[in-house]
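Give me the fold.
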Amino acid sequence: MSSRLLRICIGVLAAWLLLDRTAERVVAQDERTATLRIRFKVHGGVPKQRMINPPGVLPPIPDESLVVNPLNGGVQNVFFYVQTGRTGTKLPPVPPTQKTVRVDIQNGRLNQHAFIMQAGDKLQMRNKDPSGYNLSFAFFKNPAATILLQGNAPATLTIKQSEPAPTPIRCTVKPWVSASVLVLDHPYAAVSDEDGFCEIKGLPVGKEIIFRANHETLSFSNVIISGLPQVWKRNRFEATLTPGLNDFGVVELPWNRR
């Protein structure tokens, strides 16, 4: 065997061993932690998407306080997360990510209506419209803050502390511009997608975990799971997870047919 062919064989063997060890680590990780999957949908029909007609030159924009998939009833923008703190789950300390979350505003709306950050992260916002915005953050634990967005220049805000619930974001100049940010001290959280699905990975197994859900419009006091009514006091429920995937199915939420 030539030396060149020998080097190729050794390289292939080393790559195979590396992939094998990586697969072992992934399996081991799956055996140590849990993934929770859940889906939120409306109960009793699908509400029609409302539109907002801002003054000026902007075209009508969707009212994102309630976004429901017309095909399957999935509810978008539900915050679903592990509740910690004095009345929540005790988790091991998690190092801060210190990442930058980027959110743009264009055509009178933010490109993320509900998003998650960790304490210590930076929020960078950029205005892509010709007119300006003044966004106000109604924090509970962090100091009240505003971000003035003029032209295409970005503005940055560092959020140092976690918050007990999602924080509303409102424009003091254009009140139809709004969003919510959830700031936590851990990564165990998700926002439901266009079909209503949430998935949280890396959760501890074998201990009771308190989960909480929040939505701008819908209530979680009375939910329907597998056809049976249940009460989530303070939007919370408890679960003990097993290794691997834990699928909690569909949670149906009533809505007001105004």
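Residues 132 and 150 are 5 Å apart (CA to CA).
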